[in-house]
Design goal:
Length: 378
C-alpha cells in the first residue's frame, strides 16, 4: 500500500474516532428521565438505560416538582425542562448532573395558561414552547445562558369550539412542536379539531398565525399529537377521540398541511372504548406507531414513502393499561411504552427493517408514568 494512501486511511480513522467520542455515535449508556402525575408519585424519576441490552436500572427520584407530566431536554444535554400541569400552570427548569443523573432546580415561570400538557425546545436551544390544554393557549419562553427561563416572549389564546359538547366546548391546545427548519410551530388543538400552524421567529421568540392558519381534521376527532416524517414531506396526527391517524402532505416552504388519508388505530373488530394518545415515526421513515388507550396496544403502520399513506402492519399489547405515552430510544432499537394506570414502563425490541415489535422482557414499576426522555450519561 502506498504511504500516502496509508496516511489518508489513518487520518480518516482517527477523525472518525474523535467524532464518535465527541458526538456520541458509540453511546450505549443513557439516563431515562420519567415525568409523572404526582397524585401517585413525587416528581421526575430516573433510570440508567443500557442501549445494548435494554436493561433499566432505577436510580430513584431525580427531582420533586408538581405534576411534571411532559419533559424536554436541551440540545446541549445540560438542562431539562418540565411542564407543571396545574391550574396555575408553570414550566420548571433543571440542570442535569451527567455523572449521576441528579436534577437541580433552577427556576419556574408561568406557562401563561391552565394545565400545560406539552413542551418543546426550538432548534437553536434558545426558546421553550408550551401548550396549555385547559385554557387552550400557547406560549414561548426564553432560555437564558445558565438554563433558567424568562417570562413569556409570546402568547396566543385560541378561541372557538367543535361538535362534542363535553370535550370540545372550548379550545384545548394539547401539543406543540417545531419544524425541522425552525420556521414553523405545529399545534394540535383537541377542542377546535384543528392542527394550527404558526410562523416562529427564533430571533425574538414570537409566534404569529400562518396563512392559512390551520388544517382541519374530521369533526369530533380531537387531534392530540403530531409527528413529522423525516423526509419533510408529510406529517401525521393521532386523534384522541376518534382513535385515528390522519396523514397530511406538508409544504415546508409555505407551512401548509393538506389532508391525504385518515385511518383507524384500533384493530378490526374492536368494539370497546378507546382513545388515541401518542404517535411517532421511525427515523428511517418506513413505519409509524400510535398508542391506543382502551385496546392498550401500539398500532404499527407501514408508510408509503412516495404517497405518505399508511397500511396497518400489527397491533401489539403494551402489557399494561392506558399507554398515554411511548417513545423510541436514541438507538432506534427499543420502544418504551408508558402505561399510566398500571404504573409500568414496558420495553419492546424494535426491528427497524420490518417495523415489528417484540417484548424485550424488561419492565419497571413506578407511579403514573407519562413521559420518557433520554440524556447520554457521561
Amino acid at each position: 500500500m502506498p504511504m500516502t494512501t496509508f496516511r489518508q486511511i489513518l487520518i480518516c480513522c482517527i477523525t472518525l474516532a474523535v467524532s464518535n467520542s465527541i458526538f456520541g455515535a458509540d453511546k450505549t449508556s443513557y439516563f431515562a428521565f420519567v415525568g409523572t402525575y404526582i397524585n401517585k408519585g413525587e416528581g421526575i424519576y430516573n433510570y440508567k438505560f443500557d442501549a445494548r441490552t435494554g436493561k433499566l436500572q432505577s436510580i430513584g427520584l431525580a427531582a420533586k416538582t408538581a405534576n411534571p407530566t411532559f419533559l424536554a431536554v436541551h440540545p446541549n444535554h445540560r438542562f431539562l425542562y418540565s411542564v407543571n400541569a396545574e391550574k396555575d400552570g408553570g414550566v420548571s427548569a433543571f440542570s442535569i448532573d451527567r455523572a449521576t443523573g441528579h436534577l437541580t432546580f433552577l427556576n419556574r415561570v408561568s406557562s401563561k395558561g391552565d394545565g400545560p400538557t406539552y413542551i418543546v425546545i426550538d432548534r437553536t436551544g434558545k426558546w421553550v414552547l408550551v401548550a396549555n390544554y385547559n385554557s387552550g393557549s400557547i406560549a414561548a419562553l426564553p432560555i437564558h445562558a445558565d438554563g433558567t427561563l424568562g417570562e413569556a416572549s409570546s402568547f396566543i389564546q385560541h378561541h372557538g369550539s367543535s361538535v362534542n359538547p363535553q370535550r370540545q366546548q372550548g379550545p384545548h391546545a394539547h401539543f406543540i412542536t417545531i419544524s425541522a427548519d425552525n420556521r414553523f410551530a405545529i399545534v394540535c388543538d383537541l377542542g377546535l379539531d384543528e392542527v394550527l400552524v404558526y410562523r416562529f421567529d427564533a430571533t425574538h421568540g414570537t409566534l404569529t398565525p400562518n396563512d392559512p392558519p390551520y388544517a382541519k381534521v374530521d369533526p369530533g376527532a380531537g387531534p392530540r399529537h403530531f409527528a413529522f416524517h423525516p423526509n419533510g414531506k408529510f406529517g401525521y396526527v393521532v386523534a384522541e377521540m376518534a382513535s385515528t391517524v390522519t396523514a397530511f402532505a406538508w409544504d415546508g416552504t409555505h407551512g401548509v398541511l393538506r389532508k391525504i388519508q385518515t385511518i383507524t388505530t384500533v384493530p378490526k373488530g374492536f368494539s370497546g372504548n378507546n382513545t388515541g394518545a401518542e404517535i411517532a415515526v421511525n427515523p428511517n421513515g418506513r413505519f409509524l406507531y400510535a398508542s391506543n388507550r382502551g385496546d392498550n396496544s401500539i398500532a404499527v403502520f407501514t408508510i408509503d414513502s412516495t404517497q405518505g399513506t399508511l397500511t396497518p402492519l400489527e397491533y401489539v399489547s403494551t402489557q399494561g393499561k392506558t399507554p398515554r405515552f411511548f417513545t423510541l430510544d436514541p438507538t432506534d432499537h427499543f420502544l418504551f411504552a408508558a402505561n399510566q394506570d398500571t404504573g409500568n414502563i414496558v420495553l419492546f425490541k424494535l426491528d427497524p427493517k420490518t417495523g415489528h415489535l417484540t417484548p424485550a422482557d424488561v419492565s419497571v414499576s413506578l407511579p403514573a408514568p407519562v413521559c420518557v426522555v433520554f440524556v447520554p450519561a457521561s
